[in-house]
Design a protein that fits this description.
Blueprint: E1 19-26, H1 30-36, H2 39-45, E2 47-53, H3 58-71, E3 74-77, H4 84-97, E4 100-106, E5 110-111, H5 114-126, E6 130-137, E7 143-145, E8 148-151, E9 157-158, E10 170-173, E11 178-182, H6 183-189, H7 201-211, E12 215-226, H8 242-259, H9 264-269, H10 271-279, H11 286-289, H12 292-312, E13 332-335, H13 343-357, E14 362-366, H14 372-378, E15 382-385, H15 398-422, E16 426-430, H16 435-443, E17 447-452, H17 461-468, E18 476-479, H18 482-491, E19 499-501, E20 522-527, H19 536-548, E21 553-558, H20 566-578, E22 585-589, H21 595-600, E23 603-606, H22 616-623, E24 628-631, H23 634-640, E25 646-649, H24 654-666, H25 668-671, H26 675-686, H27 688-713
Helix pairs in contact: 2-5, 8-10, 8-12, 10-12, 13-27, 15-16, 19-24, 22-26
Length: about 725
């Protein structure tokens, strides 16, 4: 096997889907690994082994390559040393390619029996929402780790553990010496943070996992032996290595800037006492015998303070920029046509979060107040109101066209004024209906990125050309599916060279609840806008068929109408009353938090009657562990592909929709056995962290030539 980040060796066969992998990061420690990780322990645990070798020397590379070849392990050979977190991440990526879904991060100087490893793996395989670590002891029998907590006020570490983990200051964390977690956790968090280099990655990883809703479990009944320092040359005394002092003092402050940003000042104030505390872990005698350790602690403290200061100097929403213009990255202006929280709105949240995680200041222009605004502000964006018309089919009438022209005439100057005030590096326009912002960006000479969420293949060619024509103004297009790209290039072939596919990131619930083991009355949930194209009327007709067949089924409609489409909701109420279904249909309205409603449902239906570029709701059903019935068309087919608990039906066919719901109900015991696998597959495809990093990297890669050209000619 060959890893894209390096080379790999070894003859061990892949473990296959759902297997577990031991991940070991090596840096000059092939002898320790050979002695501590036996083939018997690996075999007894049922794990394949992946060794990430951070290059230290040619002889060491040869030694670890021979060891992996002899024992049938997989070697990921790195050209340099990127640190522990990066090494674990590269090993996990290689293990995923081999089919693994559970990972054991194990230090080279740790010894674990096959039985202990097997039990840890079993617990995570049974519940992928937990991270598990055993009790760690030294070879002399002393306690090394029996649970630990970190102060979110000062960064102090103490030996303690709380089963509740809800103290506002002291929070649990699990050691990375032996840490077991799932692919779901890895992809939800984007792996371990890679810039700690050494130490504190496990503290950071634990806290981010807990904050994301995953559970930390300490197995005090299971024991692993670990002699700290064997991998970086500790002397046979209490004194620690210079690396230990430097990275522990530095990374305490880096952790504070990252995970507890509101407490940066208290972290800084505690630095003299906490750095002293870290240094004295090696005893006072080292001041005479190993003074280099003190110098390392001082240098680490200074580096950590610098990291906090840099983090504080990043422009915050609404903060005046006092640094010289050349020293501050210009902001990104994001324009979005809706203040709601439906599919493309939720994707926008992840897009903005990606920019912010990359260090950008983000200003988001919304047309009105709504639930999206507070969500954006909570993630660190600045929100401004700048009303602009949106291109809808209602604009095709003479009256609608006149209204559109009038609103555009007032909105375009307003958008240009905002653009001049913000002075963005580039403009990110979400959806092609936001045509005013496309024109404003081009008129202002700004680099323009448009995220295309539409795919109107069923529209007449002339209509499609008119709808997609504003995209000719864009420098770069992001499309969310292969189907959407095909429609785009069929309409305007010239746009294909400007477009990149980035699959939607779809956040899931903190914890997905299991389906009900048995059904009395089947609860079907429709999620989406109440509009003819989304198909709630098809779901109502299917409900009538099911109840006519004597089946106990209730339909809930989760969503509201676009302004101007109130007529459709009235017609829907009238149709439900005419069919005698009033007592069997619930109108839930719009709710920004959808997961409680998905958890209360048994089956999700997405009966769209026309083309969809993608189907976020289909993915959300899988993330909620709920079987799905979806129209077999366009991007919906792409979104639902490969899921065992999904059924596809012809669009606008209520008979097929009813039959699919009946089939899921009749085979319920079998269907619910597949939802866990479908959940894992959905996470692997649409983890928000993967989407965010891919989107920003794609934009920056395309943006780089434009920046270089401007700098060359200036």
């Amino acid at each position: 096997m060959r890893d894209p980040q390096g080379s790999a060796a070894g003859t061990q066969a892949p473990g296959g889907p759902g297997c577990a992998a031991i991940i070991v990061v090596n840096y000059g420690s092939s002898g320790l690994i050979a002695a501590n990780l036996t083939t018997e322990a690996a075999a007894a645990s049922g794990c394949l082994v992946v060794v990430t070798d951070n290059f230290s020397s040619v002889p060491e590379r040869d030694a670890i390559a021979r060891l992996c070849a002899d024992r049938g392990w997989h070697l990921v050979a790195r050209d340099g040393n990127d640190g522990f977190g990066a090494g674990v991440n590269r090993g996990v990526e290689a293990a995923i390619a081999l089919g693994a879904s559970t990972f054991v991060a194990l230090n080279p100087d740790a010894v674990a029996s096959g039985e202990v490893l097997a039990e840890l793996v079993r617990q995570v395989a049974d519940d992928p929402n937990v991270l598990v670590a055993p009790r760690i002891v030294s070879s002399g029998g002393g306690s090394f780790f029996r649970g630990a907590q970190v102060s979110l006020r000062t960064g102090r570490i103490r030996t303690d553990w709380s089963e509740r983990d809800d103290d506002p200051e002291w929070r649990n964390w699990l050691t990375g010496a032996c840490l077991v977690y799932s692919r779901r956790v890895h992809e939800a968090l984007g792996g371990m943070a890679e810039d700690y280099f050494l130490y504190w990655e496990d503290v950071d990883f634990s806290r981010r996992a807990a904050d994301a809703g995953f559970s930390l479990v300490l197995r005090s009944d299971l024991e692993v032996v670990h002699d700290e320092g064997g991998t970086h040359g500790v002397q046979p005394s209490r004194a620690k290595s210079p690396l230990y002092y430097f990275y522990n003092t530095r990374n305490r402050l880096l952790f504070g800037a990252r995970v507890a940003p509101a407490a940066r000042l208290t972290f800084l104030a505690a630095t003299p006492a906490e750095s002293r505390r870290i240094f004295l872990r090696g005893g006072r005698r080292q001041l005479l015998t190993q003074p280099a350790g003190l110098a390392s602690a001082l240098r680490g403290s200074a580096a950590g303070v610098a990291a906090v200061v840099r983090a504080r100097q990043r422009p915050r929403p609404g903060q005046a920029r006092t640094a010289p213009a050349r020293a501050v990255r210009r902001p990104v202006l994001v324009a979005h046509p809706s203040p709601d929280l439906y599919g493309s709105d939720r994707v926008l949240l992840e897009s903005v979060t990606g920019y912010i995680e990359g260090g950008d200041r983000v200003v988001v222009a919304l047309p009105a107040h709504g639930p999206l605004g507070p969500e954006l502000e909570a993630r660190g964006a600045e929100v401004v109101l700048c009303p602009a018309p949106v291109l809808r089919k209602s604009a095709l009438s003479p009256r609608g066209m006149l209204t559109l022209i009038t609103e555009t005439a007032s909105a375009l100057p307003r958008a240009i004024r905002l653009m001049r005030r913000v002075d963005p590096d580039h403009v990110f326009v979400n959806t092609i209906t936001n045509f005013v912002w496309l024109a404003a960006a081009k008129a202002s000479g700004r680099h323009l990125v448009c995220h295309v969420h539409e795919a109107e293949r069923s529209a007449r060619t002339l209509v499609r050309k008119g709808l997609y024509a504003p995209l000719l103004l864009a420098d770069h297009l992001i499309v969310n599916s292969r189907f959407a790209l095909d429609v785009l290039t069929d309409t305007w072939p010239v746009l294909g060279a400007r477009a990149d596919i980035v699959s939607n990131g779809v956040p899931g619930p903190l914890v997905a609840t299991d389906p009900r083991p048995e059904l009395d009355e089947t609860r079907v949930l429709f999620v989406g806008r109440l509009s003819p194209r989304k198909g709630p009327q098809v779901a109502v007709r299917a409900l009538e068929r099911l109840r006519s067949d004597g089946r106990r089924v209730h339909l809930a409609l989760l969503g509201a109408v676009f302004p101007g489409y109130e007529w459709f909701e009235r017609e829907l109420h009238e149709e439900i009353a005419r069919r005698g279904l009033t007592d069997h249909v619930s109108f839930l309205g719009f709710h920004p938090e959808i997961w409680p409603h998905l958890a209360a449902a048994d089956i999700i239906c997405v009966p769209s009657t026309v083309d969809e570029p993608f189907g976020n709701t289909a993915v959300e059903a899988m993330l909620a562990q709920r079987p799905l019935v979806v129209s077999d068309t366009s991007g919906l087919r792409e979104a639902a592909a490969g899921y065992a608990s999904a059924r596809r039906v012809r669009p606008d066919d209520d008979a097929e929709l009813a039959a699919a719901i009946a089939d899921l109900t009749d085979h319920w015991a079998e269907v619910v056995t597949h939802v866990g696998e479908d959940l894992d597959l959905a996470w692997s495809r649409h983890a928000p962290a993967v989407y965010r990093s891919t989107l920003i990297e794609t934009i920056r890669t395309r943006r780089a030539p434009a920046r270089e050209g401007r700098e060359t000619t200036s």
